[in-house]
Design brief:
single chain; 460 residues; mainly alpha; 19 helices; globular
């Protein structure tokens, strides 16, 4: 093997990354996200990143950086009022980097420089996309990630810019806002450069429809988009992952819209005073937003308790695997539902679309759900002790942080620094924790040389 090129003082760092990638790609993912969050925290702490020229406190800059890199959208300060133009650019850059994924971006840069990925680079990129696709397909998948992101965000911006101009904005501010919303929506981030968010556009379909479309497309995941590009509408050629993601995503979208609309139909504090057609649009918009996007047209504190609980469930489910959305992922929900149906029918195998779901996938789904529920329980207990607020508000904002949604009852901005740090950790582990654990468990296969006798404990 020829000697490797020296990078000077960076040679040691490269060798460390190589060893870490070979021994634990999941650990490398955690380190990469953490490092980028630290960088953006330092940049957002600079005086010229804030509108008033003052240094932003650590807990506020760290929370904003984590929320942007983890494409969440929760804020402890007003994005429009607190940050300067430089701060807005930093937030937008953090959203784009976080949406694509740190390791995906690193692999793309490697591909651009070397005109091809080695086996190690493909392994790293495959890890970044949750082991989506076969090893030889990773290079193509990376190109799809970048090109698709650029095309979708560009198309969204082209639709949004004229809508903002029609609302009375000047040309260049309208273009900037269009680009900001396009990137924020496709990456399911939920950040907004306007002080009132998207509330002023709650009757403007030229704004609402592109935002919903961008968020929904981004929530499907790049492996699904790759299948679409290859096979178009020929669903019989789709992978099981793509079929489950699309079917469950549409089910959650439709059922969520129907239930949300029914629960809020006569609520005068939200949509009760609107026309029927407007209520339907609001319900569909809310169903898409609670899946991970995070823009809101109504005050979350004005929702009925049943609607808050529905929103909790939709946020917890999230979007597709290897997507810009959060949550436990719709395929996890699908696998668990299929397992329940198979158990109720007495089937030994869990089947879907003519395929059998392996036992290890079901164990993995259970592990992800239990880990997520445990993490949320611990976070809620801490926040209840810190804030003294009601459980419904604490649970809502906690799930929103974990599922990287960005909706809030206002609790997030009211928390003391200790509570802000709890939500910061929840966003970080919600974004990379379940993926890292799923990958680590799927790669950790031990061969046992013996088998204990079986004995059935009583369940239920």
């Amino acid at each position: 093997m020829p000697p490797r090129e020296s990078l000077g003082p960076l040679t040691g760092l490269r060798d460390f990354v190589d060893r870490l990638a070979a021994s634990s790609p999941a650990r490398l993912a955690l380190l990469a996200f953490f490092s980028v969050i630290v960088v953006f925290t330092l940049l957002l702490s600079l005086p010229f990143a804030s509108a008033d020229g003052q240094v932003t406190p650590l807990h506020e800059s760290l929370f904003t950086a984590t929320s942007a890199v983890c494409v969440t959208g929760l804020t402890v300060v007003s994005t429009a009022a607190h940050w300067s133009a430089f701060g807005h650019v930093l937030i937008l850059l953090a959203i784009q980097i976080g949406g694509l994924g740190i390791l995906t971006l690193a692999s793309v840069l490697s591909l651009a420089m070397s005109r091809g990925l080695g086996v190690r680079g493909k392994l790293i990129a495959r890890e970044a996309m949750n082991n989506a696709g076969r090893l030889g397909e990773v290079g193509g998948l990376l190109r799809v990630v970048v090109v698709t992101s650029a095309v979708v965000e560009g198309v969204l911006a082209l639709f949004l810019a004229p809508a903002f101009i029609a609302q009375g904005e000047q040309f260049w501010p309208a273009v900037w806002h269009a680009v900001f919303y396009a990137i924020s929506s496709f990456n399911n981030a939920g950040f907004t450069p306007h002080s009132n968010g998207v509330v002023p556009y709650q009757y403007d379909l030229w704004v609402l429809v592109p935002l919903m479309a961008g968020g929904f497309i981004g929530s499907l995941g790049f492996p699904v988009l790759l299948v679409f590009l290859r096979f178009k509408a020929r669903a019989r050629f789709w992978t099981l992952h793509a079929k489950l993601t699309v079917v469950v995503s549409f089910i959650l979208l439709v059922v969520g819209a129907i239930l949300w609309g029914a629960m809020e139909w006569n609520n005068a504090r939200t949509i009760g005073g609107m026309q029927p057609g407007e209520k339907v649009v609001q319900a569909v918009f809310a169903s898409v937003m609670t899946r991970s996007l995070g823009f809101n047209l109504v005050d979350m504190n004005h929702l009925t308790p049943s609607t808050l609980l529905l929103s909790d469930a939709l946020m917890f489910a999230g979007g597709g695997s290897a997507s810009t959305a959060g949550g436990i992922k719709v395929t996890t929900v699908a696998v668990m539902f299929l397992a329940i149906v198979a158990e109720a029918r007495g089937d030994r195998d869990v089947r879907a679309f003519g395929r059998t779901v392996p036992q290890e996938i079901m164990r993995l789904a259970i592990s992800v759900i239990v880990m997520a529920a445990t993490l949320l329980m611990v976070a809620c207990m801490l926040l209840l002790a810190i804030s003294g607020q009601s459980l419904d508000r604490v649970l809502f904002d906690s799930i929103s942080a974990f599922a990287t949604v960005g909706l809030s009852t206002g609790l997030t901005s009211e928390l003391p620094p200790a509570g802000v740090y709890v939500l910061t950790a929840l966003m970080f582990f919600g974004r990379v924790g379940t993926i890292t654990m799923a990958t680590a468990l799927s790669l950790r296969q031990r061969r046992s040389l013996y088998h204990y006798p079986e004995e059935r404990p009583i369940i239920g």
